[in-house]
Here is the input.
Amino acid sequence: MEDTLSGVPATIELTGVSKTFRQRRGSPLDALTHVDLVVRPGEIHGLLGRNGAGKSTLVKLVCGLQRPTAGSVRTLGQAPDRRRQEVARQIGVVFGQKSSLWWDLSLADNLSTLRALYRVPIEEYKKRKQRIVDGLNLGGVMNRPIRQLSLGERVKSELAGALLHAPRLLVLDEPTIGLDVVSTCHLRSWLSSVVANDGVSVLLTSHDAGDIAALCHRVTLIEQGTVAFVGSVDDLRGTVVGGVSVRLTATERSLSDAELTRLEVVSQWEGCCVDVTNDHSRVSLSGPAERHDDLIQLALELKPSHNGLVLETSAPTLEDALLNRFQQTDR
Here is the structure.
């Protein structure tokens, strides 16, 4: 099926997918229920949810490692559970805490072995290997056994192996685990450039909200086996009620009654509120994301820079949005 927004075949398409596990004791376990998901060509799509929400089950269905109980799974236009070999040759998979490389072999030998398994032409292999090794800064560890590498080096090595055969789909689970701040930023930037240049699609699961916010074009939030949200990271942040805040602080005086009266109109806006300190030295205006520009405009009408007022703004982070959704679920 085509993605109706782009008019081209979707890389991943789940339609009405449910997965139920039968247990020896007790009732069957519904891991996924009526899940719809579309990942477009050249898109980095984040998969979010708490532990046990159904993310791993969904990934296994996409890779053909499990069959759906109901519904349709299409990966690169094929049913992955029935055409596993064909699909496997066109995808790359990295699980941050698990290894698909041979631990006693060096990284160089691992890549050479993968070239043979995927039948990558030798000249293409040389070019791709050099590009990947340089991009991931792996030149200094090529001749060391995988078991001697640090966690961060192993994760980057796994990514190198997953990209070697030029997959059309890359499935990543915790791709920056074990990396320091500098290496994490570099990997995110490099991965974005690979997606932009090669048109590869990425399905990314991570508990690091920084990865999701920095990389993903869209996200799907799974809660208790069902899809709770689909949209951009900004859209998800925008679901936080009262998440946008504008603060005015008087540095050498108190805010006047006239100024406070002018700002009090915010309390009449739906979902918004005004909070004033006892000494009237600071006022906070908060509301939903769609009111952000209105709050800023109102604060600017007081001409802060001319009247000894400091204007500060803040918006909800992705962590704020996720915590807000999870707290709503727990009520």
Remarks:
- The domain at 12-237 is CATH 3.40.50.300 (Rossmann fold).
- The chain has two domains: 12-237, 244-315.
- DSSP finds eleven helices and 13 strands in the chain.
- The CA atoms of residues 26 and 114 lie 43 Å apart.
